[in-house]
Amino acid sequence: MVATAQAVIQHKSPTGIRFYGGARRAWAYQGPEFILSGPYETGKTIAALHKLNALLWKYPGSLALMVRKTYKSLINSAVVTYEKKVLEVPPDDPNCPIKKLGKSRPDWYDYPNGSRLVLGGMDNADKVLSAEYDFIYVNQAEELTLDDYEKLTGRCTGRAGNANYPQMMSDCNPGPPTHWIKQRAALKMFVSRHEDNPALFAPDTGEITEQGQRTMQVLNNLTGVRYKRGRLGLWAGAEGQVYEEWDDTVHVIDWFEPPANWPRYRSIDFGYTNPFVCGWWAVDPDGRLYRYRELYQTGLLVEEAAKEIKRLSEGERIIETVADHDAEDRATLKKYGIPTKPADKRVKTGIEAVQKRLQIAGDGKPRLFVMRDCLVSADPKLVEQHRPTCLAEEKPSYIWEPQRDGKPAKEEPVKTDDHACDEERYMVMYLDEPKDKYPPARVESYA
After folding, report:
1. Interhelix angle 44-58/21-28, nearest 10 degrees
2. Domains (ranges, CATH) in the chain?
3. pLDDT at 406
């Protein structure tokens, strides 16, 4: 049955799906802005998207925006969910009443009642902020800065005038307790729980479903801050975090193509059961280091990784590739035209070198950045397990091994989900330690 404008905005979507707990309260709320917060797999995005869809059906001619920090991350996440789990008929199907402009990179969806859903990212803010909206949905709001969010609220004030009330709706995973989301008094927060997700727990009996058993087993295996946030839903910081200087809002920046005259390097940490990690780095004229590409993949043979590295590096001039010490794996890379230099693997010295780069320098900037969306592709196995899929996701849960009293020893980090952090350390040590022990660097060209 195709959804119609008769949808009731209470706790049930036009497709008949009912919501419970925090999601149900968010559906009934008509205030100017709300956020649905909760641990992983509680159905936050599904609930927000269904409400957005219902509002577009209910108010003909209304204009809505679906937005995330970057457009690329939006179309690879919330847009997929919208098309597969919210629309009853795929928009590419000729029988679907909702039409989209664009195929792999859609700009908007048009409803038969004249409503329109626009897609955008804050990496192209001028485009998404050029209109007045009746409704705005922010996916993964914890990725936005307060400035990003407040710019969006200025475009959802009721001036569009196509609905009875304007509304900013968001979802988020918990972050550190100091995050601006926790500090914003005007933002009404609803909390979702695993027990309120009917896919995990039967709403009539409260009994866990088969899917719930699988999901909760994965979540119960999380550790540290990822367990606190992803399983318990707590806004918590990591105790004993190795890189206390790390701040997503400072060190993660929008992607750009490094100028051709900036020196480029690669660093590699081998793995198969654990991820194989290769980071591409560029250095600006002031010596700042930028991670502009990342391969982070489990189940990848070194031969396969070598071919992928060569393909991704095509047309680039790589000055040096620094790698873990495994002689056989390094020999395989060399066989495929990727000679490597063994990394300086001193852990504590390397961590101190990375910490130094993460600190804010005299010019107000750190000396190490990670570009947003530099990951080639997210490993689906790691996504399903809610494990880190890239360097930026490893950082918050990279902690010191605790002593018997539970306090961090600050001698050795916990050897779990640290593969990109190791690879990053190899790169920083190569660049920042004295080079008299190294022969002159060679330049590899992939023209």
Report:
1. 20
2. 21-196 (3.40.50.300), 248-445 (3.30.420.280)
3. 65
User: What would the pLDDT profile of 345-403 be if each residue is shown by its tens digit?
Assistant: 999 999 999 999 999 999 999 999 999 999 999 999 999 999 999 999 999 889 998 87
Q: Is there a contact between 365 and 204 (Cβ–Cβ < 8 Å)? A: no
Of 148, 169, 152, which is closest to residue 248 (Cα–Cα)? 148
Q: How many CB atoms lie within 10 A of CB 116?
A: 17
**What is the amino acid identity at position 248?**
D
Angle at 372 between CA 87 and CA 133, to 5 degrees: 45
Residue 5 confidence (pLDDT): 36
Q: Where are the beta strands (DSSP E) in 275-352?
A: 276-283, 289-297, 317-323, 341-342
Looking at residues 435-444, what average pLDDT do you find? 50
Distance CA 403, CA 156 (A): 51
The token pair that represents 166 in the structure block: 């304007």
Confidence of residue 446 (pLDDT cuts 50, 70, 90): very low
pLDDT value at residue 103: 76
pTM: 0.86
Nearest alpha-carbon partner for 231 in 223, 240, 242, 239: 223
Q: Which of 159, 168, 65, 68 is nearest to 118 (CA)?
A: 65
Max Cα-Cα span within the chain: 74
Q: C-alpha angle 425/429/432, rounded to 5°?
A: 130
Please report the sign of the dihedral spanned by the C-alpha atoms of residue 320, residue 325, residue 328, residue 329: negative
Q: What is the pLDDT of residue 249?
A: 87
Give the pLDDT score at 12: 54
Tokens of 98: 């909702």
What is the token pair recorded at 444? 């590899």
Instruction: List CB contacts of 193: < 8 A, sequence separation 6 or more.
Output: 21, 22, 38, 39, 42, 233
CA angle 162, 166, 167 (to 5 degrees): 140
- Judged against a pLDDT cut of 80, whether residue 232 lies above it is answered with yes
What is the dihedral angle through the alpha carbons of 101, 149, 23, 238, rounded to the nearest 10 degrees? 120
